[in-house]
Amino acid sequence: MKITKSLTAPRLMVEGAGQCSDLLYGSGFAPVDPVVLLDEGTQKLLVVPMLEFGRAREESPGTEVVLPETIGVPKNQRRSVSAWALHAVRYRRLRRVDVPAFFPAETARLLERNGIKLEIRSGAMYPERAIKKSEEIGAIAQSQRAAVAAMRAAHRLLIDATVGRRGVLRHDGATLTSERVREEIDITLLRHGCGARDTIVAGGAQAADPHHRGEGPLRAGDTIVIDIFPQHKRSGYWGDITRTFCKGEPSPARARMYRTVLAAQKKALAMIRPGVAGSEVHAMITRYFEEQGFPTTVKDGVVRGFFHGTGHGVGLDIHEAPSLGVSPVKLQPGHVVTVEPGLYDPDIGGVRIEDTVVVERGGARVLCAYPKTWVV
């Protein structure tokens, strides 16, 4: 197989339940069982099993939806999705197709043995996904509203909590844990038509690990990072928001860390506009943290400071183009990105503040805001 940057050949995808955002974008259909999509630009062919046929026809208007037998798959091969892909290409009389980087090896071998030339797209299958249409921005905003509702529910638990022995938070007579807050978030998201995956409610030293989901009792005086990123069950679009809270009076070190991150996010939001590269925003944040006395270092084998990107694109994937990191790609109207600087130190805790914004001609517009008052 050859790696190419060409965007001229028909696109072939073999997808099942789970990570099928390109197929959803290309066809409007989110499968339960594996399916094959052959996208020639002006024509699209979607091969599905019998159980998916009715729903696929309903959800994929303008796409030719067929069963394997319709395109000549022999009876003894109708359980082989690789055979579906081969016969789809033959049905359209094609000799060359572009495939994604994670295309199934078994299918690739079958196609190549039968004289089909495959080229791996070095980038996205649909690079146009990065520029969101108005209806896509509306779908992301819907998920973001659900995220804000869930953040409000989590915040309320912290407000209503009392401080027990050794600073452990209590709510309704029980210890308030990361798991209990996450449960409240999950329930709220479900009521708004969304599902949650790996929601973060991390306090104390756990908050200094950006992807620690959090576990156990929450304590007064600690920073508590809550990161909620729901996917809407119908549209498939994601939202993303993070807030950091502290129940009771924070230490001077934690308060200074929070003020610095809040100021950094304000600077990033003000800098975002068409024509600015994501790498410029990220470099500015990195410099600002260093100037404020928060360099990124490694101490006792643990990284401290700021060691992730300033933001990422949001759409049918929770992480997609463009990024606010090392990439020099310039922002354009219609880009939807997170802005989420953070600082981390196991001896102090972690602070991250995140909003999802759409890039417009006048700058960044926050999709569904939530207060940044952190002391509860």
Largest sheet: 4 strands, mixed
Uncertain runs are none
Tell me the overall shape: elongated
Give the beta-strand count: 24
Task: Calculate the terminal CA-CA distance, rounded to whole Å.
Answer: 57 Å
Q: Please, what is the average pLDDT? A: 95
Question: In which range does the helix fraction lie?
Answer: 25-40%
CATH superfamily of the largest domain: Creatinase/methionine aminopeptidase superfamily
The count of helical stretches stands at 8
- The fraction of residues in strands falls at 15-25%
- The number of domains is 2
Task: Characterise this structure.
- There is one protein chain.
- The protein is an alpha+beta fold and 376 residues long.
- The protein has two domains: 2-125, Creatine Amidinohydrolase, Chain A, domain 1 (3-Layer(aba) Sandwich); 130-366, Creatinase/methionine aminopeptidase superfamily (Creatine Amidinohydrolase, Alpha-Beta Complex).
- 30% of the residues lie in helices and 24% in strands.
- The chain has eight helices and 24 strands.
- The strands form nine sheets. The protein has a four-stranded mixed beta sheet with strand order 2-3-4-5, with helices on both faces. The protein has a three-stranded parallel beta sheet with strand order 1-7-6, covered by helices on one side.
- The model has no long low-confidence stretch (mean pLDDT 95).
In short:
The chain is of the alpha+beta class and 376 residues long. The chain contains eight helices and 24 strands.
